[in-house]
Specification:
By secondary structure, this protein is mainly alpha-helical. Helix content is about 65%, strand content about 0%. The chain is elongated and about 60 Å long. It starts with about 30 loop residues before the first helix and ends with a helix.
Length: about 240
């Protein structure tokens, strides 16, 4: 039954700007630049107008013709996938910078929360793009890499006894997703400073002396399945 809720997978992107099937053939430098400009423009337009934004608006902002957009991204889903991948890769680099500066497990975990909130408070495009292409293989691979980073930080903090023992990495992911949903509208509504307040509130909820918790998700796979099911039901109901 759950499989019935899953959308058809997004077909693979064309291997080259002209649809060449020769993977060894390099792209021209101008084609590479145009593709990057389209992704950057789509990120801005999707953030302002949502994924229903018209392709001509994206092409205009990128300074290219509609044909260039469609050669690189035959469907809106392909473009959403490219935006999601670009933003998740940027997010991964930001977390890597936090880990490179680690001093102790608690400070590292706090730094991760602040980095997450700061990044997501400015990113209106990421959540919606990921929703649309949640089953894209590259998006899934990036999400798993990010989950591994979070899991490592949580394990280190638990081993040091600085956070509660009854939480799992999936709990942190859910908290991060809550930040991703709520902060961008506040930021663009003229209250950009609120991201730090809610990041620290979320961080403080992990203290070892917190309230006893009921059972949560068994692992990340169970969490992803539950979220995917809820997402498909929401789309079906037109929410």
């Amino acid at each position: 039954m759950l499989d019935d809720l899953a959308p058809a997978p997004v077909p693979p992107l064309p291997p080259g700007p002209g649809g060449s099937d020769d993977p060894a053939r390099p792209r021209r430098s101008d084609a590479v630049r145009n593709r990057a400009r389209v992704i950057e423009a789509a990120t801005i337009v999707f953030a302002e107008q949502g994924l229903d934004a018209p392709i001509p608006e994206i092409a205009r902002l990128a300074g290219v013709g509609k044909g260039t957009v469609y050669r690189n991204f035959p469907t809106k889903e392909h473009l959403a996938a490219a935006v999601a991948i670009a933003r998740l890769e940027q997010f991964e680099r930001r977390l890597a910078d936090v880990l490179a500066e680690r001093v102790d497990p608690r400070a590292t975990l706090r730094g991760m929360f602040v980095a997450v909130a700061s990044h997501l408070s400015q990113d209106c495009a990421l959540g919606e793009a990921v929703d649309v292409v949640a089953d894209d293989p590259q998006v899934l691979a990036l999400q798993r890499r990010l989950s591994e980073i979070v899991a490592g930080v949580v394990r280190d903090a638990q081993s040091a006894g600085v956070i509660r023992q009854d939480i799992a990495p999936a709990d942190i992911t859910i908290m991060i997703m809550g930040v991703a949903r709520s902060l961008p509208p506040l930021n663009h509504g003229g209250q950009p400073e609120l991201w730090e307040r809610y990041a620290l509130l979320a961080f403080d909820s992990l203290r070892p002396d917190g309230s006893a918790l009921p059972a949560g998700f068994a692992d990340d796979d169970e969490m992803r399945l539950a979220l995917r099911t809820a997402r498909r039901l929401r789309v079906r109901r037109g929410a």
